[in-house]
Design goal:
With 289 residues, the chain is α+β, with helices and mostly antiparallel strands. It is built from 7 helices and 10 strands. The strands form 3 sheets. It has a 5-stranded mixed β-sheet with strand order 6-7-9-8-10, with helices on both faces. It has a 3-stranded antiparallel β-sheet with strand order 1-2-3. It has a two-stranded parallel ribbon with strand order 4-5. Helix 1 runs antiparallel to helix 2 and helix 3 runs antiparallel to helix 7.
Length: 289
């Protein structure tokens, strides 16, 4: 009988709890990680005038800068937004730390021959598997705003926040595409397994036709011949080092992912994609780049 890994269930439960907290905090309003408020005094010949400004370590303020003057009447809202940003950073750090511990336990289990049930790998598994926020943040660093997510739903959009998204009822394969696209299609259960291929084919066709400007597609890594052939038509590929624990339809982090994943990039900035995504995997350019 396989040995039970005692700490794993508690760690997975903790990640689910933190992920829900993270989504909830982000949904409450604007948030500015790495920002703070300063009060300054302008010295004049006859008087001194105080004023308030918001500073940030990165140019993520509404004016696209690291410095913004604010009125005293708006200080309360700014303090709330900055507190949200700090809470988000704290939650993201805690999730990363726990995920590292989970990954270490999974590696130990594999070495010892311990079988851990995989939610996604079962034949009757749900095709719903939403991309965790940590990876969406990398996507935004490359694409900027996400114009379209053609295979999504309202729950995932609470953190993906694409300008337009299509659900399975809309059928993104027959809808118009435009702008910058992020795509994590359904492909786990047998009845939808070929959708990953169809969505990748459409992304490539739309990019070559010029109807979309760039795209990042997340798929399971596979040795299938169709996948090898289609990879020749993308700009770059990031082979993610660790298996991605997706978010399930009930908002929980799925346990024990079996498959490794790739992020495929279509666009004119392969170096930018490489610089961002090499923090999580090995990036290869297409021979055409």
């Amino acid at each position: 009988m396989p040995t039970k890994i005692t700490p794993l269930p508690a760690l997975l439960k903790r990640v689910r709890t933190l992920s829900k907290q993270l989504v909830a905090v982000q949904a409450t309003g604007a948030h500015f990680p790495g920002a703070w408020i300063e009060k300054r005094t302008a010295s004049g010949i006859t008087s001194k005038k105080s004023y308030w400004c918001v500073r940030s370590r990165s140019p993520n303020l509404p004016n696209g800068s690291t410095f913004l003057y604010v009125s005293e009447a708006n200080l309360k809202e700014w303090r709330k937004a900055i507190a949200r940003g700090r809470k988000i950073v704290e939650l993201q750090r805690d999730i990363r730390d726990i995920q590292r511990r989970i990954d270490a336990l999974m590696r130990r289990a594999e070495k010892r021959g311990i079988v851990v049930r995989n939610v996604l790998g079962d034949p009757d598994a749900s095709p719903e598997h939403y991309t965790p926020l940590l990876y969406i943040e990398l996507v935004r660093q490359v694409l900027g705003e996400i114009d379209l997510d053609p295979a999504s739903n309202a729950l995932a959009q609470t953190w993906i926040r694409a300008r337009t998204f299509y659900t399975k009822h809309d059928d993104g394969l027959i809808q118009p595409w435009c702008g910058s696209v992020y795509l994590n299609p359904p492909y786990e259960s047998p009845e939808v397994r070929l959708l990953g291929r169809k969505f990748l084919e459409k992304a490539i066709a739309e990019y070559q036709a010029g109807t979309i400007t760039a795209a990042i597609i997340l798929l399971n890594r596979t040795g299938a011949q169709w996948y090898k052939q289609l990879q020749e038509h993308v700009t770059a590929v990031c082979e993610v080092y660790k298996r991605i624990a997706f978010i399930s339809e009930n908002g929980a982090v799925q346990q024990s992912p079996r498959y490794y994943n790739d992020f495929l990039y279509l666009g004119t900035e392969p170096e930018k994609f490489r610089d961002v995504f090499r923090t999580i995997g090995k990036v290869n350019f297409s021979q055409k780049v």
